[in-house]
Design goal:
The complex is a heterodimer of chains A (225) and B (557). By secondary structure, chain A is mostly helical. Chain A has seven helices and no strands. In chain A, helix 4 runs antiparallel to helix 5. Chain B has one domain: Cytochrome C Oxidase, Chain A, CATH 1.20.210. Helix content of chain B is 64%, strand content 0%. In chain B, helix 2 packs antiparallel against helix 15 and helix 3 runs antiparallel to helix 4. The longest helix of chain B is centred in the N-terminal third of the chain and has 35 residues. Classes of the chains: A mainly alpha (225), B mainly alpha (557).
Chain lengths: 225, 557
């Protein structure tokens, strides 16, 4: 087949059906061909939610690897201290973090109803609860490092403990920065009712951080001890 | 063709100064430009990685060769592997996905254009960071500090004690950075395909390329992340004195192998699934038939995605797993051949009874079918644990995975280049040069990689920088290196053809192949907004419906 006829596009068509509109010239608007009106209900998922879900899937895989490493190295440390000797259950901090999932949920619901006062209040409460958790982690680390002499180099327990809990604390920190940013935007009245979807997308991340804490808590403070 | 593009004020400025043009490319968030940037960037690294392979082949052409030192040889195979996987194959496939997915699903851009640009620049700087190792660190003193621990960087070789200086750190951080880029690109792929399809394009009416890239995006999210996590652990070991892979403190070297291959094996499928996607678009057009068994193709791809995540330890038969572990991974590895075989039958079914047109893209696809079959067969051989014990880490394995990566993935990438070049550049490539490229590359490929199996069977281990004469390896190594010459010439012809056709090629028109998917309905190259009106589709082949209103596809689907 020569280049010429190839360009024209005739050489390819099904026998007996050589089309006349095949000069490569059909208009864009003719791409709309509808044998019946397309259902006006054509709606697809919100891209923010899908994107955040994808991110959560990827993050879950990262946490899974750290959790597997933690479980694999339980009891394999060559020297002390052991988890049972130094770890105390962070009950209060855990309650704070988990209840912040509730407060952020209430906040987003308030924003959907354009109830800005309630939104600000519950959002601020979420920020406070998250901050309490982070401060509690910091105090726990300080206690472990200065009073118990456990660092990331001490033994395998130290290595896996600081990296897993630290990875989670890093995500809490990112979440707190996000919470604070949205709070500031709210104070400048830049968050409106139509932003409920965006704020909700962020809330998905915060819920994820909370759910991961349940896993980390179980692995580090229950199974690991 | 100007009739399709709406003249918007300020869209088609006449000639702009180079600085402005460059600035517009660096700051672009347009999916087509980012796609082309990904592709150009990957071609650059393809040439670099190819040079590294050539250095190794020259070193191995005769026994006791002194072309490069053992240290340089170690750096060459490490950089060759790392470059080809992370900075050639991944970006080139992301580039095609970026360019094609919005056009094929009738969207005006990706879901998150700025994230898209961010991902590209992360990948780009990851590559630059890796190659900075040649001059950075100890490289500044003229001794070179390129990574030399192999592309899978087994512990404890990567420990501070055994890998002094910063060569391994360059490797770790460049993969960490480009890994975040890959995750960002995958988030974008999945969100775009799920959320931006044009009206009427239900999941069952999506082009297969979109379906396969959706599966690829999901796989990237699940398997690049473990690599990222493992790199973080390695960095903690090297910088903060953690003990994840430190065997002196009770750490486990085998754990690194697991973590690496949980990424490493699905990665092959991350690369080959977009290759399948190209074949699934090109073979039907050049067979003048719709794809055979569309739902089965989708199902087989999803099955491959799932099974691919449970086969990783077949890379580790020789480390001494339990017999249960060996049996499990041998079986899963054999099972994955089933959906893969289904796909091969479907492509053959598409060609069967069709009016085959042997243009360059089709030739590359046929080469792919044949070579992928052989690659799959040697894969099944290696999945049998006892056979693997004999041949693991030999040139047989090297030949096997190059058969997959070059014979299957690179061949489909070449097919995609020729097929979509008219859409990207607006001009046709030179068919004669394209065919010359194909035949030279096929000859070079088979000379190199067919004969590479034999020294492996004769016991030649991979990664040795030289060997003794008299073991029967000389002739095979000579033939393998001669094949490289053919491949190098073919690549030069390929690059020359693209450059020449970019400026001197025959204008292509909208639809040079008389194809059926939406990207061919817009001008070549497409305007910035892709579609003046968002199209509405009723079948898997919307352009067939336009061209054949008397016999549209939606009557049968």
């Amino acid at each position: 087949m020569s280049q010429k006829s190839f360009l024209g596009g005739h050489g390819f068509s099904r026998a007996g059906k050589t089309p006349t509109n095949l000069q490569g010239d059909f208009l864009l608007s003719t791409a709309v061909i509808s044998h019946e009106p397309i259902d006006s209900q054509w709606s697809l998922p919100y891209k923010g939610h899908v994107g955040m879900l994808c991110l959560i899937v990827a993050e879950s895989a990262i946490f899974t690897i750290f959790v597997v490493a933690y479980l694999f190295y339980i009891g394999k440390s060559l020297s002390g201290p052991t988890p049972r000797q130094v770890l105390e259950l962070p009950i209060f901090a855990s309650i704070c973090l988990l209840s912040s999932s509730l407060t952020i949920h209430v906040a987003v619901a308030a924003l959907r109803k354009a109830n800005f006062g309630a939104f600000r209040l519950w959002w601020f409460l979420t920020l406070v609860l998250g901050s309490i958790f982070l401060v509690s982690t910091a105090r726990e680390w300080r206690h472990l490092i200065y009073d118990k002499g456990l660092t990331i180099t001490t033994n395998l327990f130290g290595t896996t403990y600081y990296s897993l809990v630290g990875l989670h604390a890093f995500h809490v920190t990112v979440g707190l920065i996000g919470l604070l940013t949205i709070l500031l935007l709210t104070l400048f009245r830049r968050v409106q009712q139509e932003h409920a979807k965006n704020v909700d997308t962020f809330a998905m991340y915060w819920h994820f951080v909370d759910v991961v804490w349940i896993v980390v808590f179980t692995v580090v403070y229950i199974i690991g001890r | 063709m100007s009739s399709e593009t709406i003249a918007l004020a300020g869209v088609h400025e006449p000639s702009r100064p180079v600085g402005v043009l460059l600035h517009s490319w660096v700051t672009t968030v347009d999916h087509k430009r980012l796609g082309i940037l990904y592709i150009l960037y990957a071609i650059l690294f393809l040439v670099i990685g190819g040079i590294e392979a050539t250095v190794m082949r020259i070193q191995l052409i005769v026994p006791h060769n002194h072309f490069v030192s053992p240290q340089v040889f170690n750096q060459m195979f490490t950089m060759h592997g790392t470059t080809m996987i992370f900075f050639v194959a991944m970006p080139i496939l992301f580039g095609f996905g970026n360019f094609l997915i919005p056009l094929m699903i009738g969207a005006r851009d990706m879901a998150f254009p700025r994230l898209n640009a961010f991902s590209f620049w992360l990948t780009a700087f990851g590559g630059i960071l890796l190659y900075f190792s040649f001059v950075g660190g100890y490289g500044l003193y003229g001794v070179g500090a390129a990574p030399d621990v192999g592309w899978f960087a087994y512990a404890p070789l990567t420990a501070k004690t055994f890998s002094l200086g910063h060569s391994t750190d360059f490797w770790t951080f460049s993969l960490l950075v480009s890994g975040f880029g890959s995750i960002g690109a995958a988030v974008n792929f999945v969100a775009t395909i799920l959320c931006l399809r044009c009206p009427g394009m239900t999941l069952s009416k999506m082009p297969l390329l979109a379906w396969l890239n959706l599966v690829m995006g999901g796989l990237v999210l699940l398997v690049i992340s473990p690599l990222t996590a493992a790199q973080v652990m390695l960095a903690l070991d090297r910088f903060l004195g953690a003990h994840f892979f430190d065997t002196q403190a009770g750490g486990s070297a085998v754990l690194w192998m697991h973590f690496f291959w949980i990424f490493g094996h699905p990665e092959v499928y991350v690369l080959v699934i977009p290759g399948f996607a190209f074949a699934s678009e090109i073979i039907p057009v050049f067979s003048r038939k719709p794809i055979f068994g569309y739902p089965i193709m989708v199902g087989a791809t999803v099955a491959i995605g799932f099974v691919s995540m449970s086969v990783w330890a077949h890379h580790m038969f020789t480390v001494g797993m339990s017999s249960y572990g060996n049996t499990f991974f041998a079986l899963t590895t054999m099972v994955i051949a089933i959906p893969t075989g289904i796909k091969i039958f479907n492509w053959l079914g598409t060609m069967w009874g069709g009016r085959l047109i042997f243009k360059t893209p089709m030739l590359f696809c046929i080469g792919f079918l044949f070579q992928f079959l052989i690659a799959g067969l040697t894969g099944i051989m290696l999945s049998a644990a006892p056979f693997n014990w004999q041949l693991s880490a030999s040139y047989f394995v090297v030949a096997h995975f190059h058969y997959v990566i070059v014979g299957a993935i690179l061949f489909t990438i070449f097919a995609a280049f020729y097929y979509w070049f008219p859409k990207m550049s607006g001009r046709l490539y030179n068919e004669k040069l394209g065919k010359l490229h194909f035949w030279l590359f096929v000859i070079g490929f088979h000379l190199t990689f067919d004969f590479m199996h034999i020294p492996g069977l004769l016991g030649m281990p991979r990664r040795i920088y030289t060997y003794e004469p008299g073991r029967g390896w000389e002739i095979w190594n000579l033939i393998v290196t001669i094949g490289v010459v053919f491949q190098a010439v073919a690549i030069l012809i390929f690059v020359g053809n693209l450059l020449y056709s970019m400026f001197k090629g025959v204008p292509a028109g909208n639809d040079p192949w008389d194809a059926w998917t939406l990207e061919w309905s817009t001008s070549s190259p497409p305007p910035e907004y892709n579609f003046a009106m968002i199209p509405v589709v009723n079948s898997r082949r919307p352009l067939w419906d336009i061209k054949h209103p008397e016999d549209p596809d939606w009557q049968y689907e």
